[in-house]
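I hope you will forgive my troubling you with a question about protein structure. The matter concerns a single protein, recorded as an amino acid sequence and a row of backbone structure tokens. Please examine both parts with care and let me know of anything in them that strikes you as inconsistent. Thank you for your consideration; the sequence and its tokens are set out here:
***
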Amino acid sequence: GTIMLKIKIEKIVEAFNVITNDYSAYFNKETYQIVFLSDEYQMIASDDYDLTKFNDWEKEEINRAEEVLYTDKYLSLPLKYDLHEYQIMKNFCLTLPDFLINIFRDALSKKGAFSNFKFLINKHHLTEKWYQYKHNEFIRIAIEWCQSNGISYTK
């Protein structure tokens, strides 16, 4: 019989913590592995390019980008943008004691919301609590992603 592959939810959450606005994660449906690709190499791969201009490491990146773009083996994991980290921050604020809610809400509505938030988290010794909260939200998003894509997972 065929072995049922499963992905550990933590693996997806790890990927969520690695991706940036121009560095995305893809899930291989055949191997259940996650690969990462920068926008730069996706752009090269989707264009006419001269492989001789690249070193071995770059060639590998381009080949991976082509495999992701031009085969149906891969699913895109949520993009950085899709994780709605700002919304997660806002929701986290609502779990705080009343006297902090307004301070945080204020900080999030100003310019530099992310750094204001980080500053307040440190100042009020909430770093652990925040990372735990964000981690749980990422777990929830990862599970939803697996379910909506028919991917078997384990906790």
User: Anything to note?
Assistant: The two ends are 24 Å apart (CA to CA).
